[in-house]
Amino acid sequence: MLYNKLYNKVNLLIGDLGSGKTTFVRFFAKTSGIKTTVTSPTFNILQTYNCKDTTIYHFDLYRLESSLELEEIGFYEFTKGNNTIFIEWADKFNIENIFTRYNKISFYIIEENKRKIMVDIKNGNS
Question: Rounded to two decimals, what is the model's pTM?
Answer without folding.
Answer: 0.91
